[in-house]
Design goal:
alpha/beta, about 30% helix, binds S-adenosyl-L-homocysteine
């Protein structure tokens, strides 16, 4: 018997929107950056996108995050496509000398971990500036922003005032935000051209 009824529909999360957008900019063979490896969701997504010939460079300051990301990549058979770096994204230019087509940031703290280890205003801003200078024309930067934890609003305030002033000749900055969900994170997309 075939059951009748509505299909189960799942709403897209903020991270899904980030993936949808990045998927439009990245092709097989590209080099890309995961600026906040965390539990490895973006690294796995990016590693699939860039294919066998592409490379992902993933940063995180926490050993726990690097280990979790490594395990997830191993499980998915994607570890050979990703270079894991236990260092801050503010130092990304020490590791990458060529241009990249996408950089993804997911701010805040590692879920299920020490909530005092968070991304911070100064290093996030430095990381975003470094990312924008490493991007190809035609590349994209995404930042998933959380303002609900201590320090989150200040981090966003600093980032927003910098991004608002980016020259529109070279950058377009797009804000993607749920209007009817107060606590949800939101997404910033910067296109470079
Ligand atoms: N809030 C998200 C996950 C963010 S994970 C969620 O709920 O899904 C953010 C990651 O950034 C953490 O693993 C943290 O260790 C890392 N991080 C903090 N500061 C960093 C820095 N300067 N450079 C790179 N990673 C950093």
């Amino acid at each position: 018997m075939i059951a009748k009824g509505c299909a189960v529909v799942q709403f897209l999360k903020t991270l899904d929107f980030a993936h949808l957008i990045v998927g439009r900019f990245v092709k097989a063979g590209d080099m890309v950056i995961d600026a906040t490896a965390g539990n490895g969701q973006d690294s796995v997504f990016l590693a699939k996108l860039v294919g066998e010939e592409g490379r992902v460079i993933a940063f995180d300051i926490q050993e726990k995050a690097i280990t979790a990301t490594k395990e997830y990549l191993l499980q998915e058979g994607l570890l050979s496509r990703v270079h894991l770096v236990q260092d801050g994204h503010e130092n990304m230019q020490n590791y990458i000398k060529t241009c990249v087509s996408a950089v993804m940031f997911n701010l805040g703290y590692l879920p299920g971990s020490d909530q005092s280890i968070i991304t911070r205003s100064d290093t996030t801003l430095q990381g975003v500036k470094a990312a924008l200078s490493l991007l190809f024309s035609g590349g994209v930067l995404t930042v998933v922003v959380y303002t609900g934890h201590p320090g989150g609003q200040e981090e966003w305030d600093g980032l927003e005032s910098y991004l608002k002033k980016l020259d529109k000749k070279n950058f377009r900055v797009f804000l993607c935000k749920y209007l009817n969900l107060k606590k949800s994170p939101f997404l910033v997309v910067v296109e470079k051209f």
